[in-house]
Amino acid sequence: MKNMVYRELEGNSPGYYGLLGISAILVALGLFAAYNMEHHGHVITGMTNQIVWGMPHIFAIFLILAASGVLNVASIGSVFRKTFYSPLGRLSALLAITLLIGGLSILVLDLGHPDRLLVAMTTYNFKSIFAWNIYLYNGFLVIVAVYLWFMMERRMQRYYPVAGLVAFIWRLILTTGTGSIFGFLVAREAYNAAIMAPLFIALSLSLGLAAFILILLTDCTETHCPLGEGILHRPKSLLGVFVAAAFYFVLAYHFTNLYITERHGIEYFILVGGGIYTFLFWGGYLLIGTLLPLILIYHPQLNQSRKNITLAAVLVLIGGFSLLYVIIIGGQAYPLDIFPGMEVTASGFFDNSPVHSYVPSHWEIMLGIGGIAISVLLTTLALKILPFLPASLADADLDPQLLD
Fold first, then answer.
1. Which of 40, 67, 183, 228 has the most crowded CB, counting CB atoms within 10 A?
2. Domain presence at residue 271
3. Is residue 13 part of a domain?
C-alpha cells in the first residue's frame, strides 16, 4: 500500500456551513427540550412509572451501539492486520468518540437533574450494571482517544497495534455491558436473558458499519475524494455478514423464549398481538432492516450501484432503531408478572394491568435528534481541524495484492 496522505476538510463551501447551521439548530432544540423536561418534569413526556425508558433512551442506545460498532473498521486494520482498512482507521476512531458523546449527552440531559451528574459519578452501587457502565463509557472515550493519538502521531505508531487491541477488547466489554442492562433485569419477561449481550454486540457491528459507510460515501461525494470499488466492496460485504449475524441472534432469542413456557405471553405480544411493536418487528426490523438490505448487498446486479449500497446502509439503521424500540419499549409495555404462578386478585403495582401504552412526546424526539446533531456537529468540526480523511481512496492507491 502506498503511503497514505491525510487531509482536513476545506470547510468553506455552502454545504459545509449549511450542515453546521442545521446541526447547531437541532442541538439548540434538543437543549430546549431538555430544559422543558427538567423544568416541568417527565410528566410532559410519554414516559410513565411503567415505561421509564422512552424515546430518548432508544436514541441514546442506538448511538452508543453505533459508536462501539464503528470502531470495528479501525480494529480490522490494527488488530486483525487487514491493512486494507488502515486508511479508514482515523475516521473510524473519530466517529466512535463523537457518536458516544452524542449518546451520552442524551442520557445526561434526560436525567431530569443533569446538575446531579457529579453525584452519579462519585457515588456507586457496584451491584448495579449502570454503575459499571459509567466506567465503561468513560474508559472507552479515553482509550479510543489514546488509540487515535497513536494512530496519528508517527513517534507513537509502534504502540498503535497494542492500543488497537485494548480498544477492541474494551468495545466488546462496553457493548456487553449495554446488553447486560437488559440481560440482568429479571423483572421484565422480555429481558433477563444472557443472549442480550451477544445480540447487542452483533447489532452494534451492523449499525456501526452502516453509519460508517454512509458517512464515507457522503464525504467522498461532497469532497470529490476518489473512492475505488475495491475499497467499498469489502465493507459492503462485511455489512451483509453483520446484518445476518444480528438476525441470527434475534432468531435465537425468540426461539429460546418460545421454548420457555412462561414466556409464551411476551412472545405472542411481540410477534403477533402487540400492535405497533409487532408491526415494527416484522416490518421495521425484519423486512426493512434485514431482508431488503441483504438483497441489495448480495444481489449481483443490485449491489453494483452505490445508491443501492447507500440505501442498504440507511435501511440497516432504520431496522436497528426499530428493533431497539421493540426490545426496550415493548419489553416495558408488557405487564409485569411479579408473582409468577400465583393468582393476583388485587394489586396497586400495575402487575395486573393490561398492556401499558406509550406515545413519545415531541420533547423526547427533539432531545434524541439533538443527540444525533451533537455527534454530527462534533464530527464536522473535527474533520476541518485535523487530518482524519485520506486524500484518496482510489483502488490504484492500494496494494494490488489486497484487491480481489
1. 67
2. yes
3. no
